[in-house]
Amino acid sequence: MGLEKAIGRTALVGALPEEMRERFVDAVLDIAQSEDARSGDVLFTLGERNTDEGVFVLEGAVKVTRANGDVRYLEAPEVLGEVQLFAPSSERTATVETVYGGTVLRFSWK
Predict the structure, then answer these.
(1) In 3-state terms, what secondary structure has residue 4?
(2) CA distance 3 to 71
(3) Cα-flanking dihedrals φ and ψ of residue 83, to 5°?
(4) Is the pTM above the cut of 0.85?
(5) CB count in 10 Å sphere of residue 98
(6) CA-CA distance, 110 to 98, in Å (whole number)?
(7) 62 — pLDDT class (breaks 50, 70, 90)
(8) What phi, psi does 15 have (nearest 5°)?
């Protein structure tokens, strides 16, 4: 699957009207850096502060571990990193690591 289609399949982007979705996908591709994530790669660490990075997980799966020990597994496509933007402490609220590898796009929310 192409990067454009995978980005468009995320809940965040898929809910946009078609014309806006196409412009959004183009903008993401202009600002994001693609990388291959391997199993066990840490994308975010609980407690990291003042980061504005988001990640589109376009292939693969991730494990999200919160401070209370709650664990969730998410499969691509997903957008991650937005919760920290709204956290009063500006800290990451979970550690996110890849369960099995795939393609991720890193970008700045700013």
Answers:
(1) helix
(2) 27
(3) -60, -40
(4) no
(5) 19
(6) 24
(7) very high
(8) -80, -10
CA distance 50 to 59: 27
Phi first, then psi, for residue 89 (nearest 5°) are -85, -5
For the chain, the farthest-separated pair of C-alpha atoms sits apart, in whole angstroms, at 40
Q: Cβ–Cβ contacts within 10 Å for residue 32, how many?
A: 19
For residue 33, count CB atoms less than 10 angstroms from its CB and return exposed for 0-12, middle for 13-18, buried for 19 or more.
exposed
Which one-letter amino acid corresponds to residue 89? S
pLDDT, tens digit (0-9, with 9 covering 90-100), for 18-28: 889 989 889 88
b/e per residue 57-92 (b: at least 16 CB within 10 A): bbbbbbebeeeeeeeeeeebbbbbbeebeeeeeebb
Give the pair of three-digit tokens for residue 86.
Answer: 């709204």
On whether the CB atoms of residues 9 and 77 are closer than 8 A, the answer is yes
